[in-house]
Each structure stands twice: as C-alpha cells, then as structure tokens.
Amino acid sequence: MKINVNKIDDLFTNYKKSGKTAFIPFISIGDPDIETSFEIAKTLISNGADMIELGYPFSDPMADGKVIQKSYERALKNRVSMADAFNFIERLREISEIPVIFFTYYNPIFAYNPSKFAEEASAAGIDGILVVDLPPEESDELKKFTDEKNLDQIFLLAPTSDASRIKLVASYAKGFVYYVSVTGVTGARKSLPAEMRSKVNEIKKIKDIPVGIGFGISNPEQVKEIKNYADAIIIGSKIIQFIEDNLNDKKNIIKNIAEFSYSIKSSLM
Amino acid sequence: MKYPDSKGHFGEYGGRYISETLMPAILELEEFYKKIKNDKEFKDEFKGYLKNYAGRPTPLYFASRLSELYSSDIYLKREDLNHTGSHKLNNTLGQALLAVKMGKKRIIAETGAGQHGVATATVCALFGLECEVFMGTKDIERQKQNVLRMEVLGAKVTPVDAGSSTLKDAMNEAIRDWITNVRTTYYMIGTAAGPHPYPEIVRDFQSVIGKEVLKQIDKFPDILIACIGGGSNAIGLFHPFLKYKEVKMYGVEAGGLGLETGKHAASISGGKPGVLHGNKTYLLQDEDGRIKEAHSIAAGLDYPGVGPEHSFFADKKRIIYDTVTDKEAINAFKLLCKLEGIIPAIESSHAVAYLEKIKDEVKGKTVIINLSGRGDKDIDTIANYLSQS
After folding, report:
1. Which of A4, A160, B274, B370 is buried most deeply by CB count within 10 Å?
2. Half-sphere exposure (CA, 13 Å, Cβ side) for B248?
3. Are residues B252 and B298 in the same domain?
4. Mean pLDDT of all residues in chain A?
5. Is the pLDDT of residue B115 over 80?
6. Range of the domain at B221
7. Domain range for residue A203?
8. One domain for residues B307 and B163
9. What residues are paired with B254 via a beta bridge?
C-alpha cells in the first residue's frame, strides 16, 4: 500500500519557517478542453504556483460568479468525468510533486460514491479536497473516508463566521483554512474588505493553522498587502478570465497566464 | 419520532449543504424559528393574516359532476381561491412575519411559474419590504402575466439566463445573491426544500391546508392527491393526515413527455438521491452527478429536485409517488374547466389528471384533491399547446 505523506502540511511547515506565503492558482479541469487545461496547469507550476487547486466542473455552481460558471460550462461541453479528472491528476503527478487540491460541489462526489472517491483520489495523487457546499455539519459522510486516506478536507470560513463557527470549523480543518475574503461568490474584485486581517488573526488565535485567502483577489498590489498576514493566496477568476478572453488563441492563453502567474509569485517574494 | 431531527434530517435526506458564508444566517433562522413557532402571539398574528388578508379558510368544494364521472366523492381543496391565486401565499405570509421580526428589510426569492414570486411580491408590499425575484428567462416568457403582477406590486424581477433558464437556475442565482447580501437579506424559499430549516418552515406554514381540511370534512377521506414540484402544496395537505394510517396519499410528479423520453420533472419516479440547493433529496442527474434539466409544461413543476420530506416518505412508502404527462394534465385541465367551471393551474391539473390513472381504485371512495392554484396564468401556454397538437 502506498503511504500518502501529506504534502500540504509539509509545504506550510516549510513556508512558516521561511516566512513565505504560498500562491495557489485555481483552474477548471477541461476548460477550454482537457489538453489545454493540462498545459495551463503546467504553465502555472513552472511560473510560481506552490500548490494548485483544480475545479471539477458542476452544473450548478451556486458559490461561483460568472467567470467560473462559464468556465464550468465550457468544461462540461467536454464531458469531463471523474475518471478524466483522476487521469489528469495522475499525469500531473508524473511531472510535478506540488500539492493538488480538488475543488468541487458535493453531488458529483456523492454520485461517484464517497468511499470510492477518496480511495481513487488518493491513488491519483490528490492531497486535499475542498467541497464548497459541505460544511462541517454534513461532512462526516465524506470525511471518514478522506481521513482514512490522509486526504486533507479543507473547510471554509467567511466574514460572517463568528467565534463559534471558527471554533467548529477549526476543529474539523486539515491542511489549512480557506478564508473567503468577501461575502459573495467567486470573482475578481478591485477592492477587498479591510476586516480580512483581523479575521485571519482571530482564526489564528483560536487555532494555530495556516490560513489561505481566496475569492476576489486579482492583482499583485492586493497580494503584497495580504502576504503580510496570510499563509496562502488563492486566485481563480482572474486566471480563468484569460481563458475566456482568448478562446480562439490558445498560445495567448498560455502566455497571459504565465506572465500573470509570474507577477503574482514575484509580488510574494 | 418527529421529523426533521435536530440537524434538519428526514432520515438520510434534508440537511444543510450550503457554503460556510450562509451557515450563520441559517443557524440564526433556525434559532429564531424554534423560539417563535409556538409563540401564541406569533401564531395569532399569522392566523389573522391568513383569515383577513388571504381570505382563508379556502373552501373544500364537493365536485359533483367530477364525482359522478368517476363514481366517487371528490372534493377539491380550493387553494386557487386563496389571495394571489395559489397556496403560495400561506408560506410567504408566514415567512414575511418571520423576516420582519428578524429585522430584515430586503427579501429575495426564486420563482418558476411566478406564483411564489407574486406571493412574495405581495407580502413585501404588505409589510413594506424591498423585494427582488429571480426568474428564468424561459419562465418569464411563458408566465408573462405573473411578471407584470410582480412588477405592479413593486418587486424587481431579475431575469436569469443560465443553464435551462428555469426554476433551478433562478434558485442558483437567488443563492448567489443571498451569499452576497446575507447580512441584510432574507431568502424566502417558495417550496418545502432547501437547507434546513426551510423544509420544516414551509411545511409548517403550508400545513394550514390539511388542518383546515380536517375541520371541513364530515367523512374521513380514503385518498389524498396533490401535485409535486418541490412539493409544498402536497406536504401542506398531507402532513396533518400522516398519522391516519388508513388515508392513502398520492404525490403526482410531472411526467412531461413521458418518463421513458427522459424529458420530465419527476425527481422521485425518475431520479436518484443527491445533493442540490442545500439539501439531500431525489434529483434528476446524470451518471457523473451533474444536474439534468427538467421538463414540464407546468413551469411550477419544472424543477429537477423535490423537498427532502417527500424523498423520506417515498422510501418509507407512506406516500406513493407517480407521474402524469403534459398531455394527461392538459386533458384534466380541460375536463375541470368544462365539468366544474374551474380553471385550474396546469400544475394542479396534474393532481386532477391522476384520477384517470386510478379510476378503478377511486370508485366508491372519498377523494380530496389539492387544487393548489388557478389557471388564469396558463391560458397562453394552453393555447400554444393546443395549437401545436
């Protein structure tokens, strides 16, 4: 049996020692097609990504804004299945060891069978699972299997989370806590709420766990500010916008994403 | 055992499958509702609005010509005579009172046929609340009258052009708005579905239907029939009768063009359990767990899911779920118009149509059908259907 040493924990332990903040880009598997999304993942990895978050497209992405909704729609036209997703990650594993977070909504996992999902996800090389519509209250059905496979089930906290929610989520959280910067859906925003910093501090006071911030982050200026208190920044919509804007020019998608990724990584240095 | 349990589960169904941003709001609603639901003042206030504003109780009408046709005693619970033309107002009145007491100033809702949208716009006017209703562009097209009604009542109707552009997509968009404006906004869900405590709240407010029937009957019914989209009118009629084991209940799902065609909205009869819109329940979905588009001529049934309590009773076989097609529903629509002088909603026509399916069984029996809404809104749809067939 393969022993799955959790790479997410390793990375944050190392980064904490050196005071670094991790860059976690998000893309959807299969957008605009499987091969191009694989190229994009490679591009992100070679241009500074410390981890990668891969979205498994869902028909009804209720927590997502327009950009990711459209990304999923494009991916679904290619009928990306769970087997395709695992195959994608296995291929990625052949060329890179960076931690992979699998992001989706619960129904595709439930339909696949949570036990089978955890087993195959682990075998494919996934390190963390983030299910956006699975709060701690409903997570046991999946968590008992992901825990068995040493997959980190990552939970969210939000600006609306009070101390009792933070305590509950922190008690379930593994790997890191994903702090949603805004009350809202995913999507690039020009300005982000000032309360982020105090919320992150509040979380860390309750549990000493890495905190990544996502939703709305779109430029190096925001990153330079956030890196002072967050352990990771997650950027999705801004990257996927490059796909949407260059659907007829795949070279340009890669070029734009490479440049953007590099600029984010540089601003974290 | 009372359902739902403390975590909002009906057996394996229900629950709270929502993003963390919404959890505090859901917990706040749950706490608030728990405190207020048995409060005498609140109950009296709700009853007062039902009586003086909605015009309840609605009649339990003995449909003599329909009874003659089926050699049975058929009663229609006339929710079509409720203010705004359907049972939907029962729930929106209750939820609006909750929202006001919780200090919320802005209400959002999703709507399919527009009946819940109209009922929401109505109570928002009544209580002076800001109102935004999300509605799929396909539904806006087929339910234009209800769009106009919502607008004259002061609501903003926001078109949703995504996915199938029907109720499911309107609900996605309403949830997105709720995530964004959760601190100020109350989400008024229109059916007995969604994250806990909504299925319980909507059921409780709609149970006025069955409770009234219990007071109105001289003779205990043998059979209850109601149509099922999300299932709020059905659970409203059925719930007070569940303890009477001898009463048989039929939930009629929208069979669309026929179950075998895949073009239907019958989540229980033609779907399997899954998670969508905050609850675990029967859903129409493909093998990869993506949600399929539903199809029904009735916009109010055109939804790929169903309330979790129905899923629970389906598995327990306490309620029997079956389907009628678009065509059968239209035939029943015409039948009720001609025999009883009542124009039913196409949604409710599904319940009436089921008589034909169990015509041997209903002979000599007492049957109550929930006539959940009136069909004025559907005249264009009926005309289109008849001109194409």
Report:
1. B370
2. 11
3. yes
4. 95
5. yes
6. 55-85+207-388
7. 18-262
8. no
9. B324
d(CA A50, CA A52): 7
Q: Which of B30, B79, B110, B173 is catalytic?
A: B110
Q: Do B21 and A138 touch (CB under 8 A)?
A: no
Instruction: Please give the structure tokens belonging to residue B132.
Output: 């935004």
8 Å CB contact of B163 and A59: yes
Among A78, A80, A138, A183, the strongest candidate for a mutation testing the B interface, having the largest count of B CBs within 10 A, is A138
C-alpha span between B120 and B107 (Å, rounded): 8
Question: What does the pLDDT read at residue A44?
Answer: 98
Nearest residue, CB atoms, B182 vs list A79, A132, A160: A160
| Least Cα separation, residue A47 to chain B (angstroms) | 31
pLDDT attached to residue B113: 86
* Number of structural domains found in chain A: 1
Q: Is A81 on the interface with B (CB under 8 A)?
A: yes
Segment B248-304, tens digit of pLDDT: 999 999 999 999 999 999 999 999 999 999 999 999 999 999 999 999 999 999 999
Q: CA A123, CA A133: separation in Å to the nearest integer?
A: 24
3-state helix, strand, coil in chain B (%, to 5): 50, 20, 30
Task: Confirm or reject contact between A48 and chain B (CB < 8 A).
Answer: no
Same domain, B219 and B354: yes
Q: Of B165, B197, B229, which residue is a domain's last?
A: B197
Whether A2 is in a domain gets the answer: no
What residue of B is the nearest CA neighbor of A154? B20
CA distance B297 to B329: 9
Predicted model pTM: 0.96
What's the rounded Cα separation, in Å, for the pair B264 and B242? 28
CB B198 within 8 A of CB B192: yes
Active site residue A152: no
Residue A186 within any structural domain of the chain: yes
- CATH number for the domain harbouring residue B135: 3.40.50.1100
Residues of A in contact with B15 (CB under 8 A): 137-138
Please tell me the distance in Å from B9's CA to the nearest CA on chain A.
Answer: 10
List, for residues A27-37, the tens digit of each pLDDT value.
999 999 999 99
Q: Do A59 and B291 touch (CB under 8 A)?
A: yes
A 106-135: CB under 8 A from B: 106-112, 132-135
- Catalytic residue status for B269: no
Residues of B near A (Cβ–Cβ under 8 Å) read: 7, 15-25, 162-163, 168-169, 172, 175-176, 179-183, 273-278, 280, 283, 285, 287-291
- Tens digit of pLDDT for each residue in A68-118? 999 999 999 999 999 999 999 999 999 999 999 999 999 999 999 999 999
Q: For A133-178, what is each residue's pLDDT tens digit?
A: 999 999 999 999 999 999 999 999 999 999 999 999 999 999 999 9
> Two tokens at B24?
């505090």
- Round to whole Å and give the CA distance between B190 and B192: 7
CATH number of the domain bearing residue A184: 3.20.20.70
Q: Cβ separation of A59 and B181 shorter than 8 Å?
A: no
Q: Determine how β-strand B248-256 pairs with β-strand A22-28.
A: unpaired
